[in-house]
Amino acid sequence: MEKQQSIDWKGLLDQKLENLTISILPPTLKLPALPVAVTQFMERSKNPDSSLKELAEIIETDSGLTVELLRHLNSSYVGLRHKATTALQALSLLGRRQSTMFLITTGMEAAVRSRKSKLINQASFWNACLQKALFAREVARLLGADEEMAFAGAMLSDFLLPVLTNDLYEHYLHFVETRDKQPELMTQYENSIFQWDHTIAGACLARRWYLPDELVCAILMHHRGLHMLVDPVLKRTSVAAVAISALLPDQLRQHYTGLEQLVLLQGKWPAFDLEALISRVDEVHAEIGSGVKNDFPLARRCKPVIDRFKEDAKSQQAENQSPAEPAST
Length: 329
Prior knowledge:
This protein is mostly helical. The protein is 60% helix and 0% strand. It has helices at 9-17, 36-45, 52-59, 63-73, 87-94, 96-113, 122-143, 147-156, 161-167, 169-177, 186-194, 198-208, 213-220, 238-245, 258-268, 274-288, 298-321. It starts with 8 loop residues before the first helix and ends in an 8-residue tail after the last helix. The relative contact order is 0.12.
């Protein structure tokens, strides 16, 4: 595998976003805010002299974050022999970087879940986000990319949609109701209506929160699809893994033919076994033990399209093997 070059993530963001900021959004939007404990943790953890004890004390100011951190660490998925009982123990076992990624994703989810959405079922939405995050991690492993960054990027790539679809309800309702008549990307629809889309809005807000630049890039470019696999700079990064995961199905059908593209990708990329990846995602999802029943496993959601492609392949094979017609005399 070729060696991954060092990437100037900040410079890339400056180039892609140019002068865009969160000011592009309507002032009436009620944007979510990161929990104070997450913001303080990120700021303090940037100091290499900060101790794990100091960071643990910050986490413990937010009981919800503390419970979620311990629940994650003590789940069957992590597989600890002895359970952690304090934030300090959790940080010691996870390490600063993985703890930071976990707190960012958990804090963001909590902030958005606290908001109502007239169009999106939040439980189903975050379930799909988790499936995409687990899928992105598997793809990142195939690419030799940062698996934890890919997980966080996929988990947060659509984080603003519950807010946007609620506050700009009529526009997004029209998109959902007319989806079959306009097989374009949802981002194309958003740009035609607002002159911006949720990838730009999410990246601008994440940048204002000083989230890691690579994570912001993943949010910004998560709807670039298969093009990311041939990008000379990003093809073996977490950003590419997140873009591939975004092709999976979701409530809003953001990618009209996303799953079909993933099926076709198998023929171009031998290591990419879609059904095996989907099976692994469902397996890990069950191991995580989030406490919420997964009524829509990824395998069930993807089965109709995969089965259709299999039937088409069989039909094509049978057609190719049929006796040739006799030549006309």
